């Protein structure tokens, strides 16, 4: 870096800052070129990985279940097009520990048109023409002229059929649980296994991997899906209302920022207070209800979440949480009231800035579109990479066999030495794999895909931050607004960011991506060592995860302010990060209090919008208001649309307020820079608004008379 030239004032005196500085530098050069080149090379490599994955992968392996021959059930244009379901000859063999190791059930699997719906054994069906005709739907070809013993020894048919239902395109026994806890299948607690043994229905549970839990989860999922089909248009109306309220809130802040902030604070306190009152009423009303004094610990996990609303302890927990939040907010307002006045002035200035740069409110849509492309590319590439293996067949044998679990070829297995040495063995499809160079480095390509996903996603986010920072900084440093501002601040800032600072954006996002990928690896290691690690290892992993979580938050904070400095001065990332860091450290009290108070006020705004929409959704979908009883849809779980509306409202409000937050952060950094760069003299006047000057008890001195 060349040494910076000293600046001189009107009378030739040396100065620390350039007195002619009026905002973002337009005549700037490219920064962090090496990182820019590296980013472009990595993107080209990412495209190459995608092309390679798309040429080798086959998503049908994810979409369709695969039978013992490696064929796809239900694939269009094949003989199995009309057979979309996978049927297991002996589902109880799926309880084998080998399933957990090889992700494959050691029993013959075939594609069928529909699952069996009745109990039947091969021995009994063989004696009845109609029953045997039905039984053949679940058998392989070549049964003519064979006895029952020959059919079973050849593995052409299952020994028995049990009533089954399709789940994830696979036939699982139709298990149910009676009130007494007895497991039944097809309304029977016992069944004939086809080998002369009468067995309990509970023996099937392990084979279908805790089927009772799966059934309950499936029932809950189906009810939730039905609720969405009944309430989707009301959910959309709720989200539109949230968007309109957010937009109205931003517009009102433009003209009534001070009043709106205090109204917002009072509204939040009142909303939380009403929540405490409502929870208290519910708590008192349940006093006489039988069973309401059961503790949450004794109740345990319930799939019907409405059960918790009939427990007094649930409402007591709500009261305590809301009361703590209420007290914290009131105490913050009491002790930080002076700082809140400065924060309100910053918010007013941000409202004026957004008024001059209204297109900034719609910039998050552009960021969302770019992130959607990045996520879609990563997901598609991941699917194609994970499905680019070749089918691997292995020997499965119930008795002792030297060739068990060895790779085999199904085409010539019947005449191979493996079959001769192990007569009852079968060559079944095991999994997808491969021995080529491509398959050996497949895990590396998946890692590269994840890393580039983080890098690209962080780059898109950084681009949005720098673009908004450049636009709002041009507003702050304009002496005459809007005459000294660019005609299109957002497009001008976006062009500068991409043309000159792609390298800086890539550098900052690369640092953040490395930390995020380390966090992913720590989570992966923790998951793999779960159940085998000692207390020392758990403590070490916990400390590492905590440290890297804190480091990620710190880097995000540094990056955000570094991008603002890059947008203003046009320097490289490291210099900008250093300048931003030391500028914030020199004003640590203002950063710790003023900036965070502003963030807190904006958070209250999001909380108010979410609270208003959430309360409206609660009274509408729960049917607590008589006016909505006939309008609201009949739902299994009314909390499903309520939760969806609340989460969606928060995301919508966050999208609008993220622009506001970026504007406040940019103006705050410019505000600190203005205080250090200028002194209010005629030669170095403050460029902040009159409102901020008044709050800070500062003023610009008039020019001396000639």
Q: Strand percentage, roughly?
A: 5-15%
Strand line-up across the major sheet: 1-2
Shape call: globular
- Based on CA atoms alone, the radius of gyration comes out at 34 Å
Task: Give the structural class.
Answer: mainly alpha
Overall mean confidence score, pLDDT: 77
Main beta sheet: 2 strands, antiparallel
**Annotation, overall tally of beta strands:** 14
- How many distinct helices? 21
The separation of the N and C termini measures: 42 Å
Measured as a percent range, the helix fraction is 55-70%
Give the uncertain stretches in residue-range form. 1-5, 7-11, 96-103, 207-215
Subcellular location: Cell membrane; Mitochondrion outer membrane
Organism: Oncorhynchus mykiss
GO molecular function, one term: antiporter activity
Transmembrane segments: 31-54, 232-253, 259-277, 315-336, 356-385, 450-478, 498-522, 600-623, 635-653
What does this structure look like?
This protein has a two-stranded antiparallel sheet with strand order 1-2. The longest helix is centred in the middle third of the chain and has 75 residues, at 211-285. The chain has helices spanning 33-56, 60-63, 98-102, 122-125, 129-135, 148-154, 211-285, 296-299, 312-335, 337-356, 363-386, 417-421, 437-440, 442-476, 489-500, 502-528, 535-569, 573-586, 588-621, 639-677, 690-695; strands at residues 7-8, 14-15, 85-88, 109-112, 120-121, 160-161, 164-167, 170-173, 175-177, 183-185, 190-192, 198-200, 390-396, 426-433. The protein is globular, with a radius of gyration of 34 Å. The chain is mostly helical. The protein has 21 helices and 14 strands. A hairpin with a 5-residue loop joins strand 11 (190-192) and strand 12. The model is unreliable at 1-5, 7-11, 96-103 and 207-215 (pLDDT under 50).
């Amino acid at each position: 870096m060349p040494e910076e030239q000293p600046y001189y004032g009107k009378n030739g005196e040396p100065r620390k800052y350039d007195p002619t500085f009026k905002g973002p530098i337009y005549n700037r050069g490219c920064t962090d070129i090496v990182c820019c080149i590296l980013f472009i090379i990595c993107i080209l490599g990412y495209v190459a990985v995608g092309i390679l994955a798309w040429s080798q992968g086959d998503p049908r392996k994810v979409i369709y279940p695969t039978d013992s021959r490696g064929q796809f059930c239900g694939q269009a244009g094949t003989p199995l097009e009309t057979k979309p379901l996978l049927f297991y000859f002996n589902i109880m063999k799926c309880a084998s520990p080998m399933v957990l190791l090889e992700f494959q059930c050691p029993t013959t699997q075939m594609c069928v048109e529909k699952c069996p719906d009745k109990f039947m054994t091969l021995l009994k069906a063989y004696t009845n023409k109609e029953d045997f005709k039905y039984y053949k739907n679940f058998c392989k070809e070549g049964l003519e002229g064979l006895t029952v013993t020959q059919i079973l020894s050849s593995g052409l048919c299952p020994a028995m059929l049990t009533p089954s239902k399709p789940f994830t395109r696979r036939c699982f026994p139709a298990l149910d649980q009676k009130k007494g806890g007895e497991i039944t299948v097809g309304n029977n607690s016992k069944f004939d296994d086809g080998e002369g043994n009468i067995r309990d229905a509970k023996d099937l549970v392990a084979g279908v991997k805790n089927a009772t839990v799966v059934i309950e989860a499936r029932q809950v999922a189906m009810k939730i899906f039905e609720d969405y089909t009944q309430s989707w248009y009301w959910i959309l109306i709720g989200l539109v209302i949230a968007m309109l309220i957010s937009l109205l809130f931003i517009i009102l802040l433009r003209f009534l920022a001070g009043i709106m902030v205090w109204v917002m604070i009072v509204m939040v306190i009142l909303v939380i207070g009403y929540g405490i009152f409502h929870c208290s009423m519910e708590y008192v009303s349940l006093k006489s209800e039988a069973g309401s004094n059961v503790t949450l610990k004794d109740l345990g996990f319930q799939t019907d979440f409405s059960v918790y609303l009939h427990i007094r302890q649930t409402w007591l927990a709500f009261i305590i949480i809301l009361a703590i939040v209420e007290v914290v907010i009131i105490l913050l307002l009491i002790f930080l009231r002076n700082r809140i006045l400065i924060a309100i002035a910053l918010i007013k200035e941000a409202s004026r800035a957004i008024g001059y740069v209204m297109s900034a409110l719609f910039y998050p849509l552009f960021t969302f579109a770019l992130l959607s492309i990045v996520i879609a590319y990563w997901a598609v590439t991941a699917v194609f990479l994970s499905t680019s293996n070749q089918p691997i067949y292995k020997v499965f044998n119930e008795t002792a066999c030297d060739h068990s679990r060895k790779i085999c070829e199904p085409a010539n297995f019947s005449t191979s030495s493996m079959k001769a040495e192990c007569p009852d063995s079968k060559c079944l499809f095991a999994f997808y794999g491969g021995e080529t160079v491509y398959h050996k480095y497949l895990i590396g390509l998946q890692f590269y895909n994840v890393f580039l996903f983080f890098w690209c996603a962080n780059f898109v986010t950084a681009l949005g931050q720098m673009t908004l920072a450049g636009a709002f900084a041009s507003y702050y440093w304009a002496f005459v607004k809007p005459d000294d501002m660019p005609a299109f601040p957002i497009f001008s800032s976006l062009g500068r960011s991409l043309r000159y600072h792609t390298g800086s954006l890539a550098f900052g996002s690369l640092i953040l991506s490395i930390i995020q990928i380390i966090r992913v690896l720590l989570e992966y290691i923790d998951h793999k060592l779960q159940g085998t690690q000692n207390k020392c290892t758990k403590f070490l992993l916990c400390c590492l995860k905590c440290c890297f979580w804190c480091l990620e938050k710190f880097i995000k904070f540094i990056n955000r302010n570094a991008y603002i400095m890059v947008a203003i001065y046009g320097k490289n990332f490291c210099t900008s990060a250093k300048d931003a860091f030391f500028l914030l450290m020199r004003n640590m009290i203002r950063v710790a209090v003023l900036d965070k108070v502003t963030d807190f006020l904006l958070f209250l705004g999001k909380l108010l919008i979410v609270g208003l929409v959430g309360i409206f959704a609660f009274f509408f979908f729960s049917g607590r208001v008589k006016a909505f009883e006939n309008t609201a849809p009949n739902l299994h779980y009314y909390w499903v649309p309520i939760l969806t509306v609340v989460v969606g409202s928060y995301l919508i409000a966050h999208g609008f307020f993220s622009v506001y937050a970026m504007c406040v952060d940019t103006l705050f950094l410019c505000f600190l820079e203005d205080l250090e760069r200028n002194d209010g003299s005629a030669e170095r006047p403050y460029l902040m608004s009159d409102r901020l000057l008044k709050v800070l008890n500062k003023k610009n001195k008039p020019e001396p008379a000639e």
